[in-house]
Amino acid sequence: MAFGHAGCAVDAVSPRGHAITTTKLLRRWFRYNGFLDSIRSAIQKAKPDLIIPCDDYATRSLHRLREQSVATNPALARLIEHSLGASQHHAVLRTRASLLAAARELGISVPDTEILTSKQALSAWLSAHPLPAYIKADGTSGGVGVRLVETRDQAERAFDALSSPPGVLRTIKRTLVDKDLRLLSPWLHRWRPVVSVQKVISGSEANCAAACWQGRLLACIGVEVVQQEENYGPATVVRLIDNPAMLAAAEKIANRFQLSGLFGLDFMIEAATGTAYLLEMNARSTQTCHLELGPGRNLIRPLAAALSGSSADTSARNVTDRDTVALFPAEWKRDPGSPYLTSAYHDVPWEEPGLVRDCIKRRLGDRGWMSLKKWRARKAAAENAADSPSARPERN
After folding, report:
1. Three-state DSSP class for 40?
2. To the nearest 10°, the Cα dihedral for 113, 118, 124, 125?
3. End-to-end distance of the chain based on CA atoms, in angstroms?
4. Per-residue DSSP letters for 24-36?
5. What is the three-state SS of 75-114?
6. What is the reported pLDDT for 366?
7. Cβ contacts of residue 24 below 8 Å, gap of 6+?
8. pLDDT by residue (tens digit) across 285-314?
9. Closest Cα partner for 211 from 63, 348, 85?
10. Which one of 201, 303, 331, 347 is CB 3.0 to 4.6 Å from 326, fit for a cystine?
11. Predicted local distance difference test score (pLDDT) of residue 315
């Protein structure tokens, strides 16, 4: 929608029934069937000037597609590189620990992080670093691949869980209920995600969404997380902030990796020092990229201008004078009675009634699956609390 308002013609490739098909600003839709060829076919038919991945799997798919096309379809390979940035850096951007190591070299504050190739590597890290720590799996989002561990046993169990291929029940549910075939190949091929361990930084979560072109930062929206869906889950309410360290990190990373398009950075602002520690990068559009929030905080219009070679719109429209934003439909789904729905700017696309209806409707499997998901989260939290040394009674 934001690209459409900026004067772009927008096509999309997505699974059947995706909410993107309900917006009036979509010109053409192409079906994603779970295989890379459907993305290749959509690009060949749409003939776009720019490709924007909207989730981590889409980013990885484009990286794979570029690698496959270098010899057979160099024009497609160049288009993907033109859209995302220099291809020699794609592998670094896909791996959390590699990205953070590069960020440290740029002078960006990052927590101690290490790729875990085995349980022996985990044991060595635990021997050299105090707990608690985070065990994280690459290629996951929304907090699904994150575990807070406070004991060695918890760490080993988390490593086993996160380093395993997708489970059969999760794959069946995703395929049959969600009509999403993305887990089929990892399940069939028994692919194991890259897992890393990261030191815990105590503080408040923050993130920034950025637009860039050929290594130059065009605009950046920095926010502090006020409310989130679940522990380590996506933000549902954010507060706009100006953090020079976050902005500097976005500029350095865009320049170092010669990025184009949209990306996001996740931070933890340490309570004791106010230092912004970079936790990870999302090499794709993120959930605040579309917001128009005035000069320097309007991502899509300057990106569209850079693409077309025209001057950016200097009016820099600001949709709200409030500093807090409730994201739709996330906060409404989290708590329909949330006070933020009225006290904050509630980001509802009222001009797209079809999209609004799609976002709030109940879908097959939502109730049972979400109940199971929440039960598992509560069960894991209870187990962690029971295993925590602080939960054990002291002996006199």
Report:
1. helix
2. 20
3. 64
4. TTEEEEEE--SSH
5. HHHHHHHHHHECHHHHHHHHCHHHHHHHHHHCCCCCCCEE
6. 53
7. 352, 354
8. 999 999 999 989 999 999 999 998 887 665
9. 85
10. 331
11. 58
| Cα 206 to the center of its chain, rounded Å | 13
Stretches where the chain sits below pLDDT 50 are 365, 367-370, 374-375, 377-396
pLDDT of residue 117: 87
* Burial (0-12, 13-18, 19+ Cβ within 10 Å), 337: exposed
E strand or H helix that includes residue 226: strand 216-228
**What are the residues facing 117 on neighbouring strands?**
none
Buried b (16+ CB within 10 A) or exposed e, 149-182: bbeeebbbbbbeebbeebeeeebebbbeebebbb
Q: Where do we find the tokens 């500029």?
A: 251
Residue 361: what pLDDT? 81
> pTM for this structure?
0.83
* DSSP category for residue 132: P
Q: Are strands 10-14 and 26-31 parallel, antiparallel or unpaired?
A: parallel
Torsion, Cα of 327, 329, 331, 337 (10° steps): 130
Alpha-carbon distance of 348 to 380, in angstroms, equals 33
Report the distance separating Cα 51 and Cα 299, nearest Å: 15
Residue 309 is predicted with a pLDDT of 86
Residue 8 and residue 26 in contact, taking contact as beta carbons nearer than 8 Å: no
DSSP-derived letter for residue 281 is: E
